[in-house]
Design goal:
The complex is a heterodimer of chains A (289) and B (314). Chain A is mainly α and 289 residues long. Helices cover 74% and strands 1% of the residues of chain A. Classes of the chains: A mainly alpha (289), B mainly alpha (314).
Chain lengths: 289, 314
């Protein structure tokens, strides 16, 4: 993205003025946005003695870093199970959603079958249906289908919010590919299947990455379905396990809780940092069209 | 699913145009099947089932019978339900308004020429990327009644003489969850609006400068009008997400203290899953639908206006 705006007039602003109007407020905002992560990280590595004694130890710093909390989390709880479950569920639901969305988006945007406009509109509306009003009827369905307390319950329900999003995003992406390319291929005798696999998809790789990354993080973050459809400890996902299993009665093990939050965030943050541009274009593309 | 249409196939008696159209329709429907099956079975059907459940007295492990509007009648006399509507409205209105103002402000700040701009933008989006439940756990610790770092700093600075009970008092708890929601929502608003800001041509601002417009006038008469269609869409999404929020409340307060922070979504979860009254919970979820429809209409007209401004057909 080009950063052109305002640059033409910046010579009119002096440095002290910019310091007060731009850098200072930006610094404050960044501090507030990042502080919870800093707090999460320092708490993870603080021994209990420092954690609950602000008088003798400065709370903003870790004086004797320890891996005790992480150790406890990984080897005394089902955390590694939750991690594996979350990966399985996120990857499977993302792959299922991407494949079905590619076909759906291509059909709506390029095949233009009769009624495709209404289908496109229906997909946008489906995108606006929130999980908070679907989880109760879905819970009864999951139970009747015998999927309760299994990964499969999440793998089949996550695509309900991923497919509308991915389809909508890919429709916008397919629209940017010149139609003439497909016409040339049609004239050369290519089938629709060949056009899709040899021309449209290779040109849409950035769009596919955007949709995939975003879908993966959405499924990693999902909470209400996983909370409702999963009951046994070893089948839980990271967000659900962290909040339901790590608190014993009134005893909060803050060190392990923060370690759970930190380690559970790392996979998405790493993925995000490699694909920031794709992630941002998914985010802005989703609200643009 | 993989219906192939050979365009080069020999031409039959029917006209070429109708044959291509038939092929398209057949192929189009074939391509739609995977997405359509999933969405019809796991989205459209449960949406309808939700309305049916709302009109029954279904409990967990016991199929219900039709009781008409009885759930809604009893909810109408339920003070907790009304309190949840009040909380949801307060939560949505305050959090969305603040997210909009601060998000727009952050977007304007980021739209300046800055060193390490790409990195800054990536960092700003972090609260949105990290799973809500996990960042909410961090807020839970920040709001702890004995070890809150906010209380500690305020006491050390001499501004307070006791620890704040963030999540234990009704109004404290309401403001605390609103602040946490704002924290998570600002990046989404800021980054999407920043993308909109970057499409505004600098020549508009230069022309306004030559005409002697002040910074406020440039913002009021150039930035806001050009940005308004994207603002409409972004805020619709933001309002929708805030209104149906569940995770943050579930982690921080579970609706307490004394139901002071129950949103409609958390109350519906509590009645349906924790309490086992699926019918009543579904009725509460159904009560959210009119609000959602209003938001969708708002978004629809926002989109229309955008198309109109861009002079596009459709």
């Amino acid at each position: 993205m080009a950063n052109v705006a305002n640059e033409g007039m910046e010579y009119l602003e002096t440095l002290p003025r910019r310091l007060v109007t731009v850098y200072l407020p930006l610094g404050v905002m960044l501090f507030l946005l990042l502080f919870p992560f800093y707090w999460m990280a320092t708490t993870t590595f603080k021994p209990d003695a420092e954690l609950y004694d602000y008088e003798r130890f400065n709370p903003f710093w870790v004086i004797h870093p320890t891996l005790e909390h992480i150790n406890k989390l990984l080897f005394e709880t089902s955390y590694s199970n939750w991690m594996i479950n979350t990966v399985i569920v996120s990857v499977s639901s993302t792959v299922i959603s991407l494949i079905s969305s590619v076909f759906a988006a291509y059909a709506v945007e390029r095949l233009r079958f009769s009624g495709s406009r209404y289908v496109g509109m229906a997909i946008f509306l489906a995108y606006l249906v929130p999980p908070s009003i679907l989880f109760i009827p879905l819970a009864t369905m999951v139970f009747r289908l015998g999927l309760f307390d299994s990964d499969l319950a999440l793998i089949v329900t996550y695509p309900t919010f991923l497919i509308p999003f991915c389809t909508w995003l890919l429709m916008g992406y397919f629209r940017t590919i010149p139609y003439e390319l497909e016409e040339c291929a049609l004239i050369d005798g290519a089938s629709r299947w060949q056009i899709l696999t040899r021309i449209t998809l290779p040109l849409s790789i950035p769009g596919l990455i955007s949709a995939g990354i975003f879908a993966f993080t959405l499924s990693w973050n999902e909470f209400i379905y996983a909370l409702t459809f999963i009951s046994s400890s070893e089948n839980k996902t990271v967000p659900v396990g962290a909040i339901t299993e790590l608190v014993e009665g009134d005893v909060y093990h803050w060190g392990s809780l923060m370690a759970a939050a930190l380690i559970g965030s790392i996979p998405v943050v790493i993925l995000y940092s490699f694909f920031v541009e794709y992630y941002v274009s998914a985010l802005t593309g989703a609200v643009k069209e | 699913m993989t219906v192939q249409v050979q365009v080069a196939a020999p031409i039959q008696r029917r006209s070429a145009a109708s044959r291509v159209a038939d092929g398209r329709n057949l192929l189009g429907i074939g391509f739609m099947i995977p997405a359509a099956v999933i969405l019809l079975v796991f989205l459209a059907y449960p949406l309808g089932l939700g309305f049916w459940l709302g009109a029954t007295d279904t409990k967990i492990g016991q199929s219900g019978r039709f009781i008409g509007l009885a759930n809604f009648v009893s909810l109408a006399r339920d003070t907790v339900f009304w309190l949840s509507i009040f909380n949801t409205t307060l939560y949505t209105v305050v959090a969305s308004a603040v997210k909009f103002v601060l998000g727009l402000y952050l977007a304007l700040l980021l739209n300046n020429r800055l060193p390490f701009k790409a990195i800054l933008r990536a960092i700003v989006l972090l609260p949105f990327v990290v799973p809500t439940v996990l960042s909410a756990i961090a807020f839970w610790w920040i709001y702890d009644s004995q070890f809150s770092i906010i209380s500690w700093v305020l006491i050390k600075a001499g501004l307070l003489d006791h620890y704040i009970d963030f999540l234990g008092q009704p109004w404290n708890a309401r403001w605390s969850v609103i602040v946490a929601n704002i924290w998570r929502g600002i990046p989404f608003v800021a980054i999407t609006l920043l993308a909109g800001l970057q499409t505004i041509s600098p020549s508009l601002y230069e022309a306004a400068m030559l005409d002697g417009a002040t910074a406020w006038q440039r913002f009021r008469f150039i930035t806001l009008p050009v940005l308004s269609p994207i603002i409409a869409v972004v805020m619709t999404f933001s309002i929708l997400l805030t209104f149906t929020d569940f995770q943050l409340i579930y982690v921080l307060t579970r609706g307490g203290p004394i139901n002071a922070t129950h949103l409609m979504a958390t109350l519906s979860f509590q009645r349906a899953i924790t309490g086992g009254n699926l019918g009543e919970g579904a009725a509460i979820a159904d009560a959210m639908v009119p609000f959602l429809l209003a938001a969708i209409l708002f978004s629809y007209f926002g989109l229309q206006r955008r198309r109109w401004q861009q002079g596009s057909r459709d």
